[in-house]
Amino acid sequence: MKFWIGVAVAFGAAAATAAFVDFDYFFFAAYTVLMFVMLATAWNILGGYAGYVNFGTPAFFGLGAYTAAVLYKAFALPLGLQIAAAALMSGLLGLVAGLLTLRLRGIFFAIATIALTVIMETLFINWRYAGGATGLQLLRPPPMAPFESYIKMLFVLMVGMALASIALARYVERSWLGRGLRALRDSEEAAESSGVPTLKLKVFACTLSGALMGACGAPMPMYLSFIEPASTFNLNYAVGALASPMIGGTAHWLGPVIGALVLSSLQQLVTVTISNEMNVLVVGVLLVFFVVVAPDGILGLLKRIFSRK
Amino acid sequence: MSGELLFEAVLFGVLLGGFYAAVSMGLSVSFGLLDVPHVAHPAMMVLGAYCTWLLVGFGLDPIVAGVVLMPAFFLLGVALYRFYYEAFERRGSEAAVRGIAFFFGLALIIEVGLMLGFGVDQRMVEAAYIGRSLSFGEIRLPMRTLVVFGAALVLTAGLTLYMSKTFTGRAIKAVAQDEPALRLMGANPVRIKQWAFGIATAVAAVAGAMLIIIGPVEPGMDRVYIGRTFAVVVLAGLGSMTGTVAAGLLLGVTESIVLIHPDLGASWAPAVSFLLLLIVLGARPQGLFGR
């Protein structure tokens, strides 16, 4: 109950901000932060609960973005349907990739996801209709009522999607699905021999995680009014989606949220004040620091501090 | 595609394949035999290429520079494995996920470190054999690829001999086959693995030298080599040296044919190794020469 009140308050606050604040840069920046919250939450369903590292966030995110862009170019599909189609496509990609490689050890899955990103990028570089290597300019439609500016609409949309993914991840974590995933994370053999359908669970987690990443990418072409392979399949998405849960803590749905909020706010700050390269370095150093020193992330640190009192 | 063009593609592919086999040798030891998820290996190689560039500035030949770097990289590898072992491997499967994330973070740090130290511009080296080519009738082969191919042969043969003939080499293979048994014999597997990881990293230094001879390097280059080296190692059947050569040649020839093919060309080439990797993972995860 407390959780749902929190969700309602967060959404209400976001809607109120959109109604009363008139500062476009804020919405641009907040959209990016929320996007990383959603990506990290989606990543954690497979990476955190089941312990399968996915380096291929850009593949799922980018496929979602391109699905939306191509459908918009071809049929001028409304944004809602674009998102649904993007989730479907990236979910399918997750299903196929999962069926192919989740039988193997975790490192093979990790490498396969790197491969997916490069293959997806190459496909879209070579697809003329979708703009090829140079990209595709897209004309935004007017915003839907009651919004007067498109970026505010996208901001509220992203708040809604991020909250929905968090609720979904929380549901998975607390249901038998999450228990099964944790069991197979600790010992695949033990879980399998106790009757946990390990492969089915892993493939389910991979599909759901992929679908959420795809949905997260769908509004991106409208956000930029543009889409292009190099930035759509950028490594930054893989880094952000992986590092946030590792920094925040992978065991609880709150971990990736905290991690993404901390990391992307810090990144915005470092990019503006120092340089873009420095910002990648900061993430790398933080990631290594947390996996070595604080394996349970910020949440684990907080728990340790509070239980000591 | 004409027969002559195909012949040229295959010939060039074989040379390229030798190079791919050589740059995958280190990973074949660290990932193939020791089971360390070393996604930062290609980044180490790029680091080796930049160190080579620095030494060439003092008038050294790039290949010699690569060899000179080997002891330093060996020590770096020993230290890195020691750290990995203490922080992750010792703690069992629960830490495996974090181990992968650790190497990913390390690769990022190396990449950005190089970017900050050397800038994002491409670097290349000068040597007598770079820029010239040999002609055999109609076919012209750049001398740099021939030099790299020769060095690759020496490196591959040397490492294969070392692994099969020397005591330590056999010990490394033993640790890969049955670690508990080795422990029961009174040997310390961690020390052997540490040594092996050192060798793998030292090989990465030479591989880096080859990398900068074959063409200009840039800090972000490790990404495409993640695909190539892991494709070769997995296709080879983890840790098999003969397999690594065969898989390297296969990748080299395939990539070269795609590159020359009129309908495909350079924009498809980066995906070849990754597609090959996916197919192998899906269809035959134990590789060509799997144990």
Any descriptors?
heterodimer, A: 309 residues, mainly alpha, ABC transporter involved in vitamin B12 uptake, BtuC, two-stranded antiparallel sheet, 2 strands, globular, B: 291 residues, two-stranded antiparallel ribbon, 11 helices, 73% helix
Report on the structure:
The complex is a heterodimer of chains A (309) and B (291). With 309 residues, chain A is mainly α. Chain A has a single domain (2-308), classed as ABC transporter involved in vitamin B12 uptake, BtuC, CATH 1.10.3470. Helix content of chain A is 78%, strand content 1%. Chain A is built from 15 helices and 2 strands. Chain A has helices at residues 2-20, 24-47, 57-75, 79-101, 106-125, 150-174, 176-186, 188-193, 198-217, 220-224, 229-232, 235-248, 254-273, 276-293, 297-308; strands at residues 136-137, 226-227. Chain A has a two-stranded antiparallel sheet with strand order 1-2. In chain A, α2 (24-47) packs antiparallel against α9 (198-217), α2 (24-47) crosses α12 (235-248) and α2 (24-47) packs across α13 (254-273). The radius of gyration of chain A is 19 Å and the shape is globular. Chain B has one domain: Orthogonal Bundle (ABC transporter involved in vitamin B12 uptake, BtuC). Chain B is 73% helix and 3% strand. Chain B is built from 11 helices and 2 strands, in the order ααααββααααααα. A two-stranded antiparallel ribbon of chain B has the order 1-2. In chain B, α6 packs across α8 (189-214). Chain B is globular. At the A-B interface, α5, α12 and α14 of A face α4, α9 and α11 of B.
The proportion of residues forming helix of chain B, as a percent range, comes to over 70%
In CATH, the architecture of chain A is Orthogonal Bundle
Give the number of DSSP strands of chain A. 2
**How large is the count of helical segments of chain A?**
15
Rounded radius of gyration of chain A (Å): 19 Å
Which pair of protein chains has the largest interface, and what are the residue counts?
A-B, 44 and 41 residues
Q: What's the story with the biggest beta sheet of chain B? A: 2 strands, antiparallel
CATH architecture of chain B: Orthogonal Bundle
